[in-house]
Amino acid sequence: MNDRSRSDAVRVAIVDDHPLLCEALGSLLEATDDMEYCGAASDLEAGYRLVDAQRPDVLVVDLIFPGGNGLELVERVLARDPSPRVLVLTGRMSTESALSCYQAGAHGFLPKTSRRDEIVGAIRRVATGRRFVHADYASEIVDFFSSGGRSRPSGWHSLTQRERAVVRELSSGATTAEIAGRLNISPRTVDSHRRNVLRKVGARNNVELLRLMLEMGLE
C-alpha cells in the first residue's frame, strides 16, 4: 500500500486470483496521485474481509475464481453496504457477462486487456458516481438502463441459443410439434429444452415462463 493517505484520494481495493495482475495494478494505483491503494485479495472470502477492513471507495474485481464467481462477492458486498463502487475487470467479455454484472449492481465493466489509462479512467469515473460502459457493449447497456434497469429472470443469461429459440417459439404460441418442425429437432428434444429453461429461470410451467417474459420485456 502507498504511504500517501489523502482525504480526497480514491481508495481502491482489488480482488483477483492472478498475482501478477494484482501486483501490476497495485503499482499503477501507487503511482497515481489521486488514488490510494488499499490492498488485494486472491479469493472471494478474503475479498469480503478486505472490503470489510478497508472500506474502499472502489472495488476492482474479477469474475472468475476457482470454485466461485466474482458476482457473488459483488452482491454480498453491496447488500451490506451499497456505497462502494464496483468495477469488474475481467477476461470474460460478452454482452451476457456485462448485463449480468450491471444486474448484480456493478458500476463498470471492462477487459483485462485495457490500457493502463483506460483502467485508471474507469476507476475515476465510477468513483464519481457515474457508470463506465465499455464501447463494445454500449448499445445493449443503454437499452438495459433505458428500460429502467429491468433485470432478466435469474438464469436467463445461461440459456443456450437453442433454448432461447425454443422460448421465442413458445411465446408465439407454437406447439411442441410445430417448434420441432421449425427448429428441425425432435419433439422430445423440444421438451428437454423447455424443461431446462424452466429450471434455469425458476418457472414452474409455460404460463409462468411467458409471464416472466412479459414482465421483463423479453422477446
CATH domain topology of the largest domain: Rossmann fold
Q: How large is the count of helical segments?
A: 10
Widest sheet: strand ordering? 2-1-3-6-7-8
CATH architecture of the largest domain: 3-Layer(aba) Sandwich
- Spatial separation of the terminal alpha carbons: 49 Å
Query: Unreliable stretches, pLDDT < 50, 5 or more residues?
Result: none
The profile of the biggest β sheet is: 6 strands, parallel
Helix content class: 40-55%
SS-derived structural category: alpha/beta
Q: What does this entry look like structurally?
A:
This protein has 219 residues and is α/β, with parallel strands linked by helices. The chain has two domains: 137 residues, Response regulator (Rossmann fold, 3-Layer(aba) Sandwich); 61 residues, Orthogonal Bundle (Arc Repressor Mutant, subunit A), CATH 1.10.10. Helices cover 50% and strands 15% of the residues. The chain is built from ten helices and eight strands. The strands form two sheets. The chain has a six-stranded parallel β-sheet with strand order 2-1-3-6-7-8, with helices on both faces. A two-stranded antiparallel ribbon has the order 4-5. Strand 6, helix 4 and strand 7 form a beta-alpha-beta unit. The longest helix has 15 residues. The protein is elongated. The relative contact order is 0.09.
